[in-house]
Amino acid sequence: MPRSMRRQRGGGLHALGPRRWREAILSALAAWNRHQVARIIVAVAVAWLLGATALHLAERGVNSDFATWGDALWNVWVLLFSGLDQPPKTAVGRLLTMVILVMGVGTAGLFTASVASLLVERYLRRRDVSTFAMENHLVLCNWSPRGLAWIQQVHSSFIQDKRSIVIIHDETDDIELPDKQDDAAFNDVYIVKGDPTSEVVLRRAKVPTAHSVVILTDEREGKHADGKSVLTCIAIRNICRGEAQPNVSAECRNPNNRQHLRKAGADEIISSDELGLRLLARSALFHGMTRVYQELLTVGRDANEMYLLPAPEGLVGKDFVELTGMFARHRGDRKSCLLIGIQRGDEMHLNPIGGEAGPLGRDDQLILLCRVFIKPSDTLPTDPPLEAT
Q1: What whole-number distance in Å separates Cα of residue 23 and Cα of residue 26?
Q2: Which residue in 111, 123, 184, 197 has the fewest CB atoms around it within 10 Å?
Q3: Measured between alpha carbons, how far is 84 from 42 in angstroms, rounded to an integer?
């Protein structure tokens, strides 16, 4: 983002160096490009009204075309877009006409450039990503208006390592994304037209090298929506071979279809209806609990979230009580964590009692509650400190 400009005392804008001037100009152009239509209309209206008033005052005694303000308004409107048939009679009028002509040409060029910029951006978002050396990106299969909120979450300003997003949908005209200059979350988002059940389309979206694939329910399929998700999972697993495969998260409309999605290759299955009903049940029994879950699921500067961390070598063999104490003693910065459980394969030990979780194994994962995601290269927020890897 452009650096903020500061005026030095007694220096004014002339104290800015060439680099600061370039940044100021680029910042002004970027600000202008937002809400283009409204700004262009305002510019034309200002040029029209001011130009008509000035020419009326300068020419009203010698030129019948500007004798009244109404005549001046009409002739300046013509002047802005085509020019005058009769030249002004006074030197001041000629000078004003030159200025108005330049403003008319400038606003017309700005309008053309804005339209071209919009068309180019839409084209770039729909270009074929198969020619890109793209990897570790996110793929979103199918589209619905809920996809906008999903993009805003995964591209939140608080996410440090943002990944490119590729949307796969067979009706690209249904996808209306905000201008990336109005919302930075929609930067680095691309669209591939096609059916996500097609292996050819999945290869075009570089699914084999993706970090994660998310399958939204295709509402157009009605009660057969889960069937399309199953076919999409099968197609993804058919083209993804080897150890490095993308994580596949599938939305499930009918919870009874979970087993079919699991057999088809989905790693994580989310049923919005089921989660919603469980939250309603918790809110009925324990008032205010929905705010707790909302906080845990919201990406924010000071929002706590739960993360999975592969068991570091230095912690293998320790029991849950000892591990909890090591994390609890480190409370000095924003990286502080609370250990709330251990995941071991398909088993999850949340707040284990006594020694039921046993010693930490090499293939286990720590379930941590913290504000900042711990990278494998970071030092663990424990006392004593340990390397995460």
Answers
A1: 5
A2: 123
A3: 23
User: Quick check: 177 and 148 in contact, CB under 8 A?
Assistant: yes
Domain 129-270 has CATH 3.40.50.150: no
Q: Please, are residues 387 and 380 in contact by the beta-carbon 8 Å criterion?
A: yes
> 32 burial class (0-12, 13-18, 19+ CB within 10 angstroms)?
middle
Domain 304-387: which CATH class? alpha beta
Answer whether 168's CB lies under 8 Å from 205's CB: yes
Checking if the pLDDT of 249 tops 50, the result is yes
Mean pLDDT for 258-272 is 93
Flag whether pLDDT at 323 surpasses 60: yes
- Find the helix or strand (DSSP H, E) in which 337 lies: strand 337-344
* Mean pLDDT over the full length of the chain: 81
How far from the centroid of its chain's Cα atoms is residue 61's Cα? 59
Report the predicted TM-score, pTM, of the whole model to 2 decimal places: 0.62
Helix, coil or strand: residue 49: helix
3.60.15.10, 3.30.720.200, 3.40.50.12230, 1.10.287.70: CATH of 15-121: 1.10.287.70
Q: Where are the domains of the chain?
A: 15-121, 129-270, 304-387
pLDDT at 220: 92
Spatial contact of 236 and 265, defined as CB atoms under 8 Å apart? yes
